[in-house]
Every structure is written in structure tokens, then in C-alpha cells.
Amino acid sequence: MLFFRKKEKEAPSNEKKAALSMPKTKKVQFTPVKIPELTALLNSDLYELTKLTPVNYYADKNSFLQCTFFYNEDYTDVYFVVQLFENDFPRASTPYYKADYDLMRKTVIRFGQRI
Fold first, then answer.
1. What confidence score (pLDDT) does residue 12 get?
2. DSSP 51
3. Predicted pLDDT of residue 22
4. What 8-state DSSP symbol labels residue 61?
5. Rounded to the nearest 10 degrees, how much is the dihedral formed by the CA atoms of 28, 33, 36, 40?
6. Is there a smaller number of Cβ atoms within 10 Å at the N or the C end of the chain?
């Protein structure tokens, strides 16, 4: 008789716990990039996020990166995560990162949104 172990879930990071407790979110989409390459870029400099190419979700649903910002009303705490979506299903994700208001502002301004 075979017994299979359940896959043990990783404990969520402090950034993920804090991000999920934030009351507001904002989502923006970019052209797809490989997640390991993006993670390496973001680990070296978070402002690499502003260099990604924006894409319209409705124009390219097959594959895109979605950046979700989690923040509170006064933008003192800002967190983000980038997920790779293929056919509207999440396939891979970067870790959660703590950002600042300036990074969020510079990222969403590329989509014509002012905060």
C-alpha cells in the first residue's frame, strides 16, 4: 500500500502577510518576461519594474505579466508582486517586495494613471 505525503506549504513571508493585509490594490500589465530573469532584476534594483513594456490586457490575453500593488490610503506602505499569466491563469510569480510611493507612482504613470 502506498502512502503519499501531502506537499508541505511554505510559510508566507512577512512581505506577503503585510501585502495581503493592505486595504487597496492596483493592477497593471506588462509584456511577458521570464520570471527568474525578472526576479534577478528586481533583487538588484526594484526600479527595473519601471523599465518593463506596458501592454493592454484586452489586446494580449494569451500571455502577460501582471503587477499588483498593495497599499494603504496614504501610500506609506506599498508592496507588490509580479505574476505571469497565460490564458488568464497564473503560472509563476515573483516574491512579494516592499516598495515606496515613488516606485508605484513611476510605474502607473506609464499607463496614464496619476496617483
1. 80
2. G
3. 95
4. -
5. -70
6. N
